[in-house]
Amino acid sequence: MKLYELLENNAETELQDIEISSVTDNTRKVQEGSLFVCVKGGSFDGHSAAKEMLEKGAAAVIAERDLGLGERQIIVENSRDFYGKLCAKWFDHPEKKMKLIGVTGTNGKTTITNIVKHILTANGHKTGLIGTIRNEIGDEVVETANTTPMAYELMELFDRMVKAGCEYVVMEVSSFGLVQKRIGCCHFDIALFTNLTQDHLDYHKDMEDYYQAKKLLFGKCDIALLNTDDAYGKRLYREISCDKYSFGTDANDDYYSGRIKLKASGSSFWLCANDKSHLIKTKMPGVFNVSNVTAAVAICLNLGININDIINAVESCCGVRGRCEVIPTNRDFTVICDYAHTPDAIENVLKSVKEYTEGRLICLFGCGGNRDASKRPKMAASASMYADKLIITSDNPRNENPDDIIKDILAGVDLKTSCDVITDRKEAIFSAIKHAQKGDVIVLAGKGHEDYQVLADDVHTHFDEREIVAEALKQI
Q1: What is the distance between the alpha carbons of residues 61 and 182, in angstroms, rounded to a whole number?
Q2: Domain that holds residue 293
Q3: Coil, strand or helix: which one is 59?
Q4: How many CA atoms, within 13 angstroms, populate the side-chain half-sphere of residue 416?
Q5: What does the pLDDT look like over 151-162, one tens digit per residue?
Q6: Which residues 6+ apart lie within 8 Å of 202 measured at CB?
Q7: CB count in 10 Å sphere of residue 65
């Protein structure tokens, strides 16, 4: 592609007619004819390698300041932002060829995006999915390393979706993806906000910074759907200017869920929208899943899908791996696997499960190493509110001592709550299964869809809680 085509009049250069062989911000991927974009990251600044990249064969470099490289440098205001635009153009703007639905917030993103994809697919619309667990192009599964892919990988994935015939893309949009401008020049037909609770404060300096990161999505959409049961959702509703609609459990919400009935096998509720009420039945248990389903229904209604077709699709949706997932035991107790790894998420799942627990509610959880340590005692406090028994163990310790992490967690445990400490997570699960009684519900929190543990030096070791539960059941 010619340089002048790639730039789309967004930058000035005297090298208009040269041929560009590739676009990258990765020094290892520079080849003859590449356009190298100097991006400043947390530990490396691409500007320091600009001259070396030209010597390696790059045709030109994009930079934010004069590097003394003459006509072979192209200066822009924000190279990270500019890189997103270049990636979109490199793939002929695939983001403009499909309807984009973005979901952001702390909790619920994965479940909502998967429900939306299920509804659209059930109604004959080929749909792409981008998220925490995996990416999907229709029925094709594409593994993922990030909730929101990097700019080049995102556009490459969009391009594959377009070529596969996808009409829609529903994607989780993380705060990292927004701040780091991974979504480039994407404009969303619909953007939805779930909630905001403490998470990622090892990256964001405080909750306000975290909120402002999430808010960025709502300057890039036509329609906003906001959970106004959440305080940050209410605030966001006041502060944005695009077309906006509320959803929640208040009768004044545009999409209102009421008369909620919860069971271990699922839930039912009445959804009120456009002055009409509709009975919704779902196989996904928990009051938080009522909110997730309401959000998904609101999205699909705004896409023009018929309400009866939406309801039928919701009834056939079995949920998402690792999100309040019931692990089969064929015993008189229940084991649930959930990704809850924030104080709010663990409170939500336990509060919901408590409502239909006949025996004891047992919660097994740990906290990740090298992550926001301040949430550890808060998670314990949240768990203590609803669990009859806690089993404190490891999660992904990374380069921290697991016992030090557990010590932080224990500071928040209510002294009235029965609590065991078993550092080895497999041993902890075995103990929970061995001592389970009739009517008990065991919630394994934190790992969810993950089938690995992250140890020191980023070593990933296989660890699937479904397999461990099955192994434990054989021994009792």
Answers
A1: 19
A2: 94-315
A3: coil
A4: 5
A5: 999 999 999 999
A6: 370, 371, 372
A7: 11
